[in-house]
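sorry for the late reply, my laptop died twice this morning and i had to redo everyting from scratch. anyway the thing you sent over, i finally got around to it. pasting the sequence first so we're on the same page, its 401 residues, then the predicted structure underneath. double check i copied it right bc i was rushing
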Amino acid sequence: ILLALLWFDPVDANSLTKDETPDPYQDAMRALSEGRIGDARIALSILVRNEPDSPGAWLDLATLRCSLGDAAEAQRLFDDIEARFSPPPAIIEIINQQRTTGCQGNKTTSQFSFSFGRGYDSNANQGASNPNFSIGSGSSKVDLVLLPAYRPTSDQYYTASVDYLSDIPVFENSLGFVQFQARQYDKLSYLDTSSLSAGIERGWYFGEWGVRGRVAGSTTALGGSSYLNQGQVQLEVQPPLNLPVGWQMLFVGGWSSLNYPLLPSYNGNVFEARSVLRHHTENFAWQASAGALFDQQINKRPGGNRKGGFVSLEGRFRFVKDSIAEIGWQHQYWQAEDIYSPGLIDVARKQNTDVLRANVSFPVLENHSIIAEYQYTYNRENISIFQHREQLIQINWQFRL
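ok and here's the structure:
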């Protein structure tokens, strides 16, 4: 796709600095590096439309079309290149080679990964940090102590996951994914979890506005019984802002439906609106986001509806050859509208949760990696029986294809 680097008008090449590189071209190259072929094609099409005198963009688009097996469109673009730009012999030879192969490319791109790991959880049951609590108020106040089963209990576990994603040929610029995850504890088998999720993402361009939609569903089992069924709809919008190269601004809105088969009083709908700012270079990328949340109850949940929000910051960088490190932090808060349990817990629940995570991926063989992970959760609440701290340490072996 980078054949165009061989062929630029000398004047244009000297006058085009890094900071002046057209945004659609940067979007296309980034999309190609991330495997988003449909996004790359759309971005190159926009560049060809906006800058019809750019031979490099025309050649990139034609080569991409040919590599995807779209012979008719690639042939039309090759003919236009020869008619409009009178390319030099070296480029003519490249075009003829593409024609000779018949543009027999694979129209779908897919990725499969499997991981297996061993981990330690310092508070697998999310036991309360403080075993002392009170119920009631005034003269009816009673001080109690939690049973050992509700205090922090550590355990080790095995974990496994399978991920598969693929382009969907019948829907242009779309992606389907399926994911399975499972965790099995050594002692606390009633906390064993497994989940299955699947969904579809599709992107569009409206003028220079980028839009991506996502529809997904998942089901989670806890201790061998159905625990949570969830559906999600999400829309991501990227406006055509005049940002420096390497920067990206997104706005995201979403709705999730939560259904707890054994705890129907906790069923609800969660609405989300957030903004995302990203920056990336060749060896480093970071992302900051902030948003508002609203959790609508359905079946008289304790505390009623909740309002909240979150902020997060995460970074990813390359070091020691091909090793990659990631670090992230998120703060989330919730404020319930009503008293949690009148007569017993006479306060509206307030939650503040911080999560710090870090992982390092070390490639060991082709398509094989070892991943070391750490996560720390600190949940501070005004109801002491819900306060807890938790640390996870996990080592994974991952195979990707």
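Residues 1-22 have pLDDT under 50 and may be disordered.
thats about all i looked at so far, will dig more tmrw
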